[in-house]
């Protein structure tokens, strides 16, 4: 060990308290990073190929949206469940299990013969991805302190950036060379390698050993309420469905609201809630949650609809579409790595977070001004600004929450932030997709005369083009005659710009939320170190510091009233003494 320490300063400690060098930490994180890449890849690799996939499977704009939303929804509703399981069971086993679920879902999705089948298997993919997304953040907190975590959070942000926007490039290349089904097979070997790496390199203690209780009813209510809201958003106002202001809408929203209200009541009363409601008493957690929702809208909405814009408004192929969105991934990659290093070096995070939120808000507003023939240099600048902002804010929201919550709530708190980010992305994609579909119909209606004239000039071939456009399925724009293609490209260009302009004001909320987050100093202890320093005894099983304090007050009061010897009540609060206890007090009493 002494030789290792001379080569690299200690970066963290193992559960046994042995110093880990930077190299050893990277080895332990290799499987986590690969698992995270697999999760993000699953959500984004098909984005550039979706126009072709949906066209081949005879799907419409609603199907297009739900192929994406189904995965995000499954990821969203399963993330807090995985997080709670992480507080109760072996985290290494759980993350390997989530990888297995993902592999099965990915392989089956590649055999889909219609959009319904594809959506179903994408749900299974999302369940696995939820575990990967949540557990990787939780395990990171187990072995690295908040102060040191910034440099490694940069790596996670970089991996997420590459997966988020680099995934579409990979998907485009696969679609153009091997066929779109390979989009679902590509993640399988990565997942298998990640399982093997985790088995070899990751060393964590076994479960907590305490009696476990899983809130199944709360999980069902959360999943049901969120799912019903998203189904309503996707279908309302669409051709052949129901209107926004209708009895169907009222019933769906009413049932969803009752389910979510019921979920809150259940979470307040069960022993082991999926999302502990007491976390919202913490200002950092509350405002980080709000910011996570809006960041999710930007991250997922941009990656999905920018790809659609490139193909349907600019006539790009799937591969070209991936290449054209590279400015965004470069912004995410660079900012997440650089800012992560700066946070670890100086221990300051707020100035970077505020600047990042301003950057991605500006990017959203600017993307709302584009059209089908916008100069690409300008478009690249807009995407780059958006990428910088998302890269800075996204991962560090998890970092600042992990810095202040009790170590016993680490899993639930980390997963909850990820849950709300995924929820924001799911709602964002659903709402933006619904608005896009409605806007396309409106704009085509405005251009009916020009479109009919262009079709009429095609002669006998015009009937086939007209039938394809009237079918309701997403057209293969590149295959349309030029006179018709220009009209359709202008429609989709204006429609995509419209949804970014609608979403941009939501991004302003991120700036406000980040400003309101308390500027807490980053700690220097890992979750495992903080847990080791906590008092051992009956109060160690209580989930919150507030409950521990209340029990202590009762015990001391009883002793002072003469109900028992004073020394019988003192040991539970006096066991942890010395500098270690004093150093940990600020981290636990927030």
Question: Could you explain the architecture of this structure?
Answer:
- The chain folds into 2 domains: 413 residues, Up-down Bundle (Growth Hormone, Chain: A); 61 residues, no CATH class.
- Helix content is 74%, strand content 1%.
- The chain is globular and about 85 Å long.
- The protein is mainly alpha-helical.
- It has a two-stranded antiparallel sheet with strand order 1-2.
- It starts with a helix and ends with a helix.
- The longest helix has 37 residues.
- α4 packs antiparallel against α17 and α7 runs antiparallel to α13.
- It has 24 helices and 2 strands.
Encode the helix/strand succession as letters. Answer: HEEHHHHHHHHHHHHHHHHHHHHHHH
Taking all Cα atoms into account, the compactness measure Rg is 25 Å
Q: How would a crystallographer describe the biggest sheet?
A: 2 strands, antiparallel
Instruction: Please give the count of helices.
Output: 24
CATH architecture classification name of the largest domain: Up-down Bundle
Summed over residues and divided by their number, the pLDDT gives a mean of 75
